[in-house]
Amino acid sequence: MSGIIVVGVDASRTAKKAAESARDLAAALEASLHVVSAFDSDRAEVFGSGSDQLIVSAAGAAEHVARTVAESLLGRGIKVTFSAVRGRPADALIKEAQRMDARIIVVGNRRMQGIGRVLGSVANSVAHNSPCDVYIANTYEAD
């Protein structure tokens, strides 16, 4: 098949499980994998004073998450890239999939039961608005 598979992640165990499913799917389809983490604003916080300052931004934190997950997925002969994208998670995944002309978006099924199903979930939003196929990975065992 080839092409690009996009997977959305945050720092949760369920996102890691979805990313592992995406890696396995990419390997089976001989596709590359692009790991995406969303952030909501450009806010940054400064810790310390003088020359001993540390600046932590939402974008930087999201990029760190995406990079860490991407590095953990290396191997199996697939190319793995990552990015941090501003926006709500579902919107960020859809935007990145469009930008990369992705073949598949992989998301976990977290919050697809109970009240989360009524209020909405990333998987539900992506499934209804995706420009490509969507694979919803079973991540319940990761909770």
UniProtKB/TrEMBL annotation:
Signal peptide: none
Domain UspA: 2-136
Domain of life: Bacteria
One Pfam family in the UniProt entry: Usp
Database matches in InterPro entries: Rossmann-like_a/b/a_fold, Universal_stress_UspA, UspA
Gene3D superfamilies tied to this protein: HUPs
Family statement drawn from the similarity comment of this UniProt entry: Belongs to the universal stress protein A family.
This protein's name: Universal stress protein
Protein species of origin: Arthrobacter gyeryongensis
